[in-house]
């Protein structure tokens, strides 16, 4: 039996993780769960999975959670907590075999570092943590001999392709990208696109922040950075290929020019289950891939003109240092501004670009320098946004 805690259990990845656990009750048990503010979803999860510790990040929702949990009259002890301290408490629990991090945003960074120091395996969906502090996180993981198992579909694909391989034989990795809902449109048309257009991902059903990231192609940029740190690759060995069907989840080309790919329907339960079961593969009740239904797999070059965020991410990765924390924090802030109808589609890339140009980067930053750069970027971006409104 593996003991699992989930940070972000009420979101798209969190609820699908609980679906996987429900289908494998003999293999997994839940220890800790957390949400930002979704009290009622948490209450249902408590009734079904009996976690021993539950955190609501938003302190204002704590009393609602507490009174609803008291009314459940549970026949076991449950600890309730809130805020970053609450997330850290779950991450630090010695009971955890795996901490699945599926919060959205770099709020996952400190809990992830806490679990690594405790020696707990990380199943990582929360890519922003690796974008803002990839070197620091991977160095800590190495120091504490902790495995970081990717949940992000592309990185799970690459991880699966690399099983049994010597990483020195990698020629390059090929990250596939759907191209998002605006693929093929010209810049003038894209400039008019609203949040409701951007929230219609062609293949995947996901949380709002990552869905906007897919529409700008920043998601692929974040994934290039995530791949660099996870697989310790030179930036020149990371390619992006638009593959609108999202059936090939990613590929690895080796030095003999042989290519391995991992394929499947666009369904995150596959990568989640792989990460929880690793190194074992577990049975799945999901539909398999029907090659006759998907008999036209196509490929295109990414359009850097229409989607400048991808280039911004490559440039930030080239320079490294706190540019990466600024890229991530600026992106988080502009995406929420776009979701709140405060800015237009191309304000997203324009503001991130300005933030990067105005930043004095620090090489090899420590945690406090990363957090400082993150704060600086959020202040800078919100100042810009307030002038646009
Ligand atoms: N969805 C997907 O298919 C994929 C997602 N990912 C990555 O996984 C992560 C989660 O994505 P997704 O599940 O789509 O996101 P969702 O928005 O659906 O879920 C986010 C989860 O985090 C919680 N949360 C939000 N903000 C905070 C906060 N400040 N503090 C603590 N908890 C918070 C939410 O709680 P509440 O419900 O209360 O708001 C929810 O449980 C992201 O990093 C994303 O990039 C990667 C690959 C695929
Ligand atoms: C499911 C998943 O891993 C997402 O990150 C997905 O890849 C988004 O699709 P895009 O390729 O459109 O960014
Ligand atoms: Mn992905």
TrEMBL record:
NADPH binds at residues 10-13, 126, 128, 207. The keyword DNA damage does not apply. Residues 263-380 form the DXP reductoisomerase C-terminal domain. Residues 148-231 form the 1-deoxy-D-xylulose 5-phosphate reductoisomerase C-terminal domain. It catalyses: 2-C-methyl-D-erythritol 4-phosphate + NADP(+) = 1-deoxy-D-xylulose 5-phosphate + NADPH + H(+). It comes from the Bacteria. Mn(2+) binds at residues 152, 154, 223. Pathway: Isoprenoid biosynthesis; isopentenyl diphosphate biosynthesis via DXP pathway; isopentenyl diphosphate from 1-deoxy-D-xylulose 5-phosphate: step 1/6. GO terms for biological process: isopentenyl diphosphate biosynthetic process, methylerythritol 4-phosphate pathway involved in terpenoid biosynthetic process. 1-deoxy-D-xylulose 5-phosphate binds at residues 127, 153-154, 178, 201, 214, 219-220, 223. Its cofactor is Mg(2+); Mn(2+). InterPro entries: DXP_reductoisomerase, DXP_reductoisomerase_C, DXP_reductoisomerase_N, DXPR_C, DXPR_C_sf, NAD(P)-bd_dom_sf. Catalyzes the NADPH-dependent rearrangement and reduction of 1-deoxy-D-xylulose-5-phosphate (DXP) to 2-C-methyl-D-erythritol 4-phosphate (MEP). Belongs to the DXR family. NCBIfam families: Dxr, PRK12464.1. This is 1-deoxy-D-xylulose 5-phosphate reductoisomerase. The lineage of its organism: Bacteria, Bacillati, Bacillota, Clostridia, Peptostreptococcales.
């Amino acid at each position: 039996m593996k003991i699992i805690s989930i940070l972000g259990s009420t979101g798209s990845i969190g609820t699908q993780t609980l679906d996987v656990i429900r289908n494998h009750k003999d293999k997994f048990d839940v220890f800790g769960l957390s949400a930002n503010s979704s009290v009622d979803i948490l209450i249902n999860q408590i009734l079904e999975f009996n976690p021993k510790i539950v955190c609501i990040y938003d302190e204002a929702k704590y009393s609602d959670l507490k009174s609803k949990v008291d009314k459940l009259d549970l026949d076991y002890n449950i600890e309730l907590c809130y805020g970053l301290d609450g997330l850290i408490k779950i991450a630090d629990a010695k009971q955890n075999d795996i901490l699945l991090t599926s919060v959205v945003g770099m709020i996952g960074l400190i809990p992830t570092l806490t679990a690594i120091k405790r020696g707990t395996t990380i199943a990582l969906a929360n890519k922003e943590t690796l974008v803002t502090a990839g070197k620091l996180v991977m160095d800590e993981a190495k120091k504490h001999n902790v495995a970081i198992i990717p949940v992000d579909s592309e990185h799970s694909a690459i991880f699966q392709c690399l099983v049994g391989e010597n990483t020195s034989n990698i020629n390059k990795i090929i990250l596939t990208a759907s191209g998002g809902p605006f693929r093929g449109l010209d810049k003038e048309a894209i400039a008019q696109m609203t949040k409701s257009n951007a929230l219609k991902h062609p293949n995947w059903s996901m949380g709002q922040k990552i869905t906007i990231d897919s529409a700008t192609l920043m998601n692929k940029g974040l994934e290039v950075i995530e791949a660099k740190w996870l697989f310790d690759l030179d930036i020149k060995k990371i390619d992006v290929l638009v593959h609108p069907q999202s059936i090939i989840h990613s590929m690895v080309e080796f030095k003999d020019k042989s290519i391995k790919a991992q394929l499947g329907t666009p369904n995150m339960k596959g990568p989640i289950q792989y990460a929880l079961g690793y190194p074992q593969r577990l049975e799945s009740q999901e539909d398999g891939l029907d090659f006759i239904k998907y008999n036209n797999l196509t490929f295109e070059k990414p359009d850097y003109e229409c989607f400048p965020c991808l280039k911004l991410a490559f440039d930030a990765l080239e320079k490294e240092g706190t540019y990466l924390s600024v890229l991530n924090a600026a992106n988080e802030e502009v995406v929420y501004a776009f979701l709140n109808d405060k800015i237009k589609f191309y304000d997203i890339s324009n503001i991130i670009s300005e933030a990067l140009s105005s930043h004095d980067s620090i090489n090899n930053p420590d945690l406090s320098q990363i957090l400082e750069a993150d704060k600086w970027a959020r202040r800078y971006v919100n100042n810009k946004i307030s002038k646009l409104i």
